[in-house]
Design goal:
This protein has eleven helices and 14 strands. The protein is of the alpha/beta class. It is globular, with a radius of gyration of 19 Å. The structure holds nicotinamide-adenine-dinucleotide and (2S)-2-hydroxybutanedioic acid. Nicotinamide-adenine-dinucleotide binds next to helix 1. Pfam families: Ldh_1_C (PF02866), Ldh_1_N (PF00056). InterPro entries: L-lactate/malate_DH, Lactate/malate_DH_C, Lactate/malate_DH_N, Lactate_DH/Glyco_Ohase_4_C, Malate_DH_AS, Malate_DH_NAD-dep_euk, Malate_DH_type2, NAD(P)-bd_dom_sf. Keywords: NAD, Oxidoreductase, Tricarboxylic acid cycle.
């Protein structure tokens, strides 16, 4: 029997991530090739014409799974009845800007959209914040939508996770699908800590630790970390635009794993509300290794954290605490 359509909201849908993301959702990349979807697309009035163009292209693409498109500049209409909300709307960082520079513009958007989601989305709506500063926007959304369970609000660090897998795969000249269990700890910013201490590669001789195969701790502890931390800036420098296709693909990975579950023995990175695990201060949206089952994520527990890692986990937590304070100062 055909499944009922799932309503998926994409805010900022006339932007460049939106343009890459909506066809992926309509093709089943996010929710599966047997899951019909109705897309809710939100943008602001200056982008209304362009948003309508995106809707026209979605119609023209004749996606079999796409059962309807609501393209609107009305936040209430956009949020009504949605089961999944992918929050991309906001102002991206330009060359030479730090992420903090986009803070004041973006947190106030997330405060007002929190109200609309809380009131009009379907019960148990899952929310993914992509727009930067992603962790802090998600935290503001959580705090101003207190009736949405905190387990339903997350931010995107899967792009960083995938970047880390990509760097290891390039370095070892192995398939990216054979690399697993890297971790992104903390903020989706240059303070994040890409950790390979528990990562492995599937080889003909079995699972091997990444550290053993790379056999170059100096590279893993410096250049690798810096490359992943700075990858967003490197893409902006190269494209004069921030990452879009990889961000859209990572957003699909994030929701797909959250809804459909992670495979046995594999964890992924998600920005989620800290419960104090790994001595990360509770009350921040912080990226952790998680497994998912039945639509719920669980932080992977019991991983060893050495002194080098501890410092890095703490540093990115400090930045998030500062961002939280700055966000509140922007809102008053
Ligand atoms: P973009 O400027 O191309 O698109 C953003 C869209 O949001 C625009 O169409 C704009 O009109 C719209 N918008 C602005 N205010 C809005 C509002 N109040 N409601 C609805 N829509 C609104 O930017 P982009 O390249 O698509 O990037 C979007 C965001 O994603 C940026 O904040 C960017 O920094 C962030 N980003 C995050 C990651 C991640 O991994 N977390 C990766 C890449 C980009
Ligand atoms: C990215 O990681 O590519 C985005 O968050 C863009 C940015 O500002 O770094």
């Amino acid at each position: 029997m055909a499944k009922n359509p799932v309503r998926v909201l994409v805010t900022g849908a006339a932007g460049q991530i939106g343009y890459a993301l909506v066809p992926m959702i309509a093709r089943g990349v996010m929710l599966g090739s047997d899951q019909p979807v109705i897309l809710h697309l939100l943008d602001i009035p200056p982008a209304a014409e362009s948003l309508n163009g995106v809707k026209m292209e979605l119609v023209d693409a004749a996606f079999p799974l796409l059962k309807g498109v609501v393209a609107t500049t009305d936040v209430v209409e956009a949020c009504t009845g949605v089961n999944i909300a992918v929050m991309v709307g906001g102002f991206p960082r330009k060359e030479g800007m730090e992420r903090k520079d986009v803070m004041s513009k973006n947190v106030s958007i997330y405060k007002s959209q929190a109200f609309a989601l809380e009131k009009h989305a379907a019960a148990n709506c899952k929310v993914l914040v992509v727009a930067n500063p992603a962790n802090t926007n998600a935290l503001i959304l959580k705090e101003f939508a207190p009736s949405i369970p905190e387990k339903n609000i997350s931010c995107l660090t899967r792009l960083d996770h995938n970047r880390a897998l990509g760097q290891i795969s390039e370095r070892l000249n192995v398939q990216v699908s054979d690399v697993k269990n890297v971790i992104i700890w903390g903020n989706h910013s240059s303070s994040q800590y890409p950790d390979v201490n528990h990562a492995t590669v599937t080889t003909p001789a079995g699972e091997k630790p990444v550290r053993e195969l790379v056999a170059d701790d100096a590279w893993l502890n410096s250049e690798f970390i810096a490359t992943v931390q700075q990858r967003g800036a490197a893409i902006i420098k190269a494209r004069k635009l921030s990452s879009a296709l990889s961000a859209a693909s990572a957003a699909c990975d994030h929701i797909r794993d959250w809804v459909l579950g992670t495979p046995e023995g594999i964890w992924v990175s998600m920005g989620v509300y800290s419960d104090g695990s790994y001595n990360v201060p509770a009350g921040l949206i912080y990226s952790f290794p998680v497994t998912t089952q039945n639509g719920e994520w669980k932080i992977v527990q019991g991983l060893g954290i050495d002194e080098f890692s501890r410092k890095k986990l703490d540093l990115t937590a400090e930045e998030l605490s500062e961002e939280k304070a700055l966000a509140y100062s922007c809102l008053t």
